[in-house]
Amino acid sequence: MLLMRKSAGACSLFVEKICVKFLFKPVNRTLPEQKKMDEKARQFVLYELKHCPDCSKLRRKLHQNQINIDTRNAQKYQCYRNEMLKGGGKIQFPCLMVQNPDNTQKWIYGGEAIYNCLQQQLLEVA
Asked: Tens of pLDDT along 75-112?
């Protein structure tokens, strides 16, 4: 089972690199539009695993839409896993932490739910 998971992750990472480099062209925005989006994106932190297929798919979508958010590799750094567990109550990837203006945090799990949240809050800004 572990071997299958690792191979799927490695394949997913390979596909991501190919897609980002050759297939998915990022959207074109003016510099002021991109700066506005980047400013709004500072409220988000993505917790991910490098070889996770859902994380890889989400990274491709973020690249394609030029959504630049802070990412934390929870596979490499145990402290990020601990942050997830303490803040969100569980360890599941990908995970998005949204820092609200009132200093509360919202934790969103799953690639599609995360992308929908980002699309709703960021792409309407552009």
From this structure: 999 999 999 999 999 999 999 999 999 999 999 999 99
The CA-atom distances, in angstroms, between 42 and each of 8, 21, 46, 109 are 31, 25, 11, 18
Decide if 71 contacts 46 (C-beta within 8 A).
yes
For the chain, the residue count is: 126
Q: What is the CATH number of domain 2-123?
A: 3.40.30.10
Other C-beta atoms within 10 Å of 46: how many? 23
pTM confidence score = 0.79
Cα–Cα dist 93/48, whole Å: 6
DSSP 26: P
The single-letter DSSP state of residue 60 is H
- Reference 38, options 16, 65, 60; nearest CA is 65
What Cα–Cα distance (Å) separates residue 62 from each residue in 3, 52, 57, 58, 84? 28, 15, 9, 6, 21
